[in-house]
């Protein structure tokens, strides 16, 4: 599963934003795919193993078992702050926040919104990320910085249609 998810992403991101030889790019794609796949496999093994141990010790499965097993697995497997783990955690964080919001409405902790809150969320997220990009760029993840630089700065330089197909940052442009 990790390979299925990571390989296409690494392929696109590497050829869009990384320099180097074809061999170096292919090695980078393979390494990212391997790391993602390995970490997911280690996590699943750790999580399922800890769930089984807890169920065996208490002779029943309780909801806290899942939380504890995942916390331990997350610490052990994803605790190293590297680009792959960082991206996985950010991916999960956004989905966790959406899930917790829905759960809070479902349980009655917050009222059901009268209107779809998504347009407001979209406005706040885009406003915040571009403010961070313009004034506190170093706080953003490197791949997001690269994407935003490509979109909002490199796009100010125009050569020809190849700028849209390959990369619009040329050494002869400055």
TrEMBL record:
GO terms for cellular component: peroxisomal membrane. It holds the Pfam family Tim17. InterPro entries: Pmp4 (IPR019531). Transmembrane segments: none annotated. Signal peptide: none annotated. This is PXMP4 protein. It comes from Vidua macroura (Pin-tailed whydah).
